[in-house]
Amino acid sequence: MAVDMASDSAQPVLEELDRQECLRLIAPGGIGRIAFEDGEGPTVVPVNYAVDGESVVFRTSMEGRLSRSLLTAVPGGQVRAAFEVDAFQDDTHEGWSVLVRGGAHPLEGEERERAVRVDPWPGGEREAWFSLSAMEVSGRRLRQG
């Protein structure tokens, strides 16, 4: 008969992260997922991003679903959206996940010129620049106990 020697201390621990730690984790930029309503229901797409203070900046094509959905806002207004980034290690069962919720708006003119640089991985034109203001930031980390 096999004896299970695992104890509760060997199980991963889930902890809530504060706003500052969440922003620190996503600060290097990379790939995240933007969630928005596209008229057909909730949609999530991956984007390259950079962090600018407490905003997430990303680019997309002008004719894409993401751009069309986020450009439907009243000029000067924002569209509610969410942004998620995570990093996990399958072998250790450790990692973290950060969720940013707020208003997304297109960057134009001087605001676009002042924005941090975002280099999209896909080829083609990615001339639609957006910023998502971090109104709500939450995150969790899974670590060994």
Features:
elongated, 6-stranded antiparallel barrel, disordered N terminus, 48% strand, 14% helix, Split_barrel_FMN-bd, mainly beta, Pnp Oxidase, Chain A, Pyridox_Oxase-rel, 3 helices, 8 strands, Pyridoxamine 5'-phosphate oxidase family protein, 145 residues, single chain
Describe what this molecule looks like in 3D.
This is Pyridoxamine 5'-phosphate oxidase family protein. InterPro entries: Pyridox_Oxase-rel (IPR024747), Split_barrel_FMN-bd (IPR012349). It comes from Actinomadura verrucosospora. Pfam families: Pyridox_ox_2. The chain is mainly beta and 145 residues long. It has a single domain (18-144), classed as Roll (Pnp Oxidase, Chain A). The protein has 3 helices and 8 strands; from the N terminus they run βαβββαββαββ. The protein has a 6-stranded antiparallel beta barrel with strand order 2-3-4-7-6-5. The longest helix is centred in the first third of the chain and has 8 residues, at 19-26. The chain starts with 11 loop residues before the first strand and ends with a strand. The model is unreliable at 1-7 (pLDDT under 50).
Kindly summarize this structure in a few lines.
This is Pyridoxamine 5'-phosphate oxidase family protein. With 145 residues, this protein is mostly beta strands.
CATH class: Mainly Beta
Q: Quick one: how many beta strands?
A: 8
**Residue runs with pLDDT of under 50 for 5 or more positions:** 1-7
Give the overall pLDDT as a whole number: 84
Shape: elongated
Per CATH, which architecture? Roll
